[in-house]
Design a protein that fits this description.
It contains 21 helices and 27 strands. The protein starts with a strand and ends in an 18-residue tail after the last helix. Bound molecules: fructose -6-phosphate (F6R). Fructose -6-phosphate binds next to helix 10 and helix 18.
Amino acid sequence: MCGIVAYIGGKEAFPILIIGLKRLEYRGYDSAGVALLNGDVNLYKCKGRVVDLENHIGEKNTKGSVGIGHTRWATHGEPNDANAHPHAIDNNELSIIHNGIIENYLTLKKELEKRGHVFKSDTDTEVLIHLIQDVKDSEKVDLEEAVRIALTQVVGAYAIVILSKNDPDTLVVAKKSSPLVIGIGENEFYIASDATPIVEYTRNVVYLEDGDIAVVPRHGELKIKNFKNKEVIPYVQELEFQLEELEKGGYPHFMLKEIYEQPRSIRDSMRGRASISRGTVQLGGITDFEQKFMKAKRIIIVGCGTSWHGGLVGEYLFEELARIPVEVEYASEFRYRNPVINEDDIVIAISQSGETADTLAAIKLAKAKGATILGICNVVGSSIARETHGGSYTHAGPEIGVASTKAFTAQVTILTLMAMEIGKMRGHIPKARFNQLLTEIKGIPKKVEEVLKTNDVIEEIAEVFKDASNFLYLGRGLNFPVALEGALKLKEISYIHAEGYPAAEMKHGPIALIDAEMPVVVIATKMGNYEKTVSNIQEVKARGGKLIALVTKGDKIVSEMADYVIEIPEVDEMFIPMVSVVPLQLLSYHIALKRGCNVDQPRNLAKSVTVE
Ligand code: F6R
């Protein structure tokens, strides 16, 4: 969603802002803008991409060593020039960029209108800068204090940066429920909504906490206070990822690069955790909570989208290997129910970005009810990682393509290791089986490498089906969440309507859709319910459906029935999703590409969904 980048120091701010905004493009946006201070404030913004903003600015004055930049993903008001950020007041005396939503903006706006304020946009952000200005004038306080007082009247989520024409040596920033990170350079500071625009300049960063207001100076020390006006000592952390991880590395798209990175990312997720020689799995998320897991009567998994699919895989694994009942919940539904949560429940929140608003809210709810909350997150230092009692990072590396790929397989890797370890702890997995699983899971990256070799076959299948209007994905058991994930990938990036179903559920409705125009992807790998899946395939064939089958290498039965076949290597049933999802990612990628879609930044989607 929206992206923030700001700079204050001794360099020209404009190139830093533009590069930073391009780094933030992956989050999804529809307009962009910058404000630069050099005596006067020059503010430029427009609907469209960052490159449109550059064209719009052309040769105009972009001088200034302090500036703010923003990519907007529309919430209040359509994507247009007026609604783009920055928003300014009083001849650009104050300008603001904002991520998040001000929920009570209408009430505040009405009050401000009564007091003579006139608005130029439909946004909640413009209301906020008017409120701050109003407080500043009426209370006769400085900007920092005006921000503090104004924010006490605000309900909602925000990360804001304010530029003041009269104070060229400071930027004022604040955050609540929307991430904001400050990079500390030499006599300069970088501010951003995530660390991607910062990493090429400095590795030292401070993640603001909810309620923090910081005065970021041109030189000298960063000063942070909380809403209660108490000083907060900045906690400086070192960024773990490298700049190269944010580049395409020779691939035409981030999505393809990330699909191909999976052997590495799955290996990294296991590194230092699964050891064949010691015969152990060691995960911070478990060892620190061993007693809780021994007593747990239930695990609740919360997440959204692909992460929710990861959770569904986890449900099968925990129930099969650890024999603990599991409920998998959409975070957005869970948070608005009155869920029954007990103190001996363990809630596992899964999130690539670690910033998803609904997942964060679900965690807070379960925490307030006394449950133990663990996170499986990819982004180190993210809000969810900080809000949970413990957990395990996935170590997949930055995921830039909007459609999640390597994050999913890394989440499933962690969930599998967790289920194995808990199963062993609770006495449900004999040592020999545990060791066998360990050996097998360590071999999964190699199996994924093999799957990637089927890319050409998949590209040919994509050519045949690129003009389809609908797709059905079917799978049973552990392949059911994979079917959901395959369908989600396809609809996200190719805009083809696709649905995933448990294969046996087809005859209860979706079978009515099947005709010669309907491609049906069936994940029919060798596993416990293989024969049952074969029967479901016969039902598809009998109705003329076009069958694309994912089968285990050497399979004869399904291969003879299918119109198109993709083979994957044989793996233990428990690990099938890590392997079977990969061809479906590639299929979506190739179909989307052949349809001329923007694979990395599909329309309407945001990488980090920080509003509910
Ligand atoms: C799908 C996708 C989304 C996310 C969802 C949750 O490709 O990317 O469905 O999985 O928005 O995001 P995280 O995992 O960041 O909480």
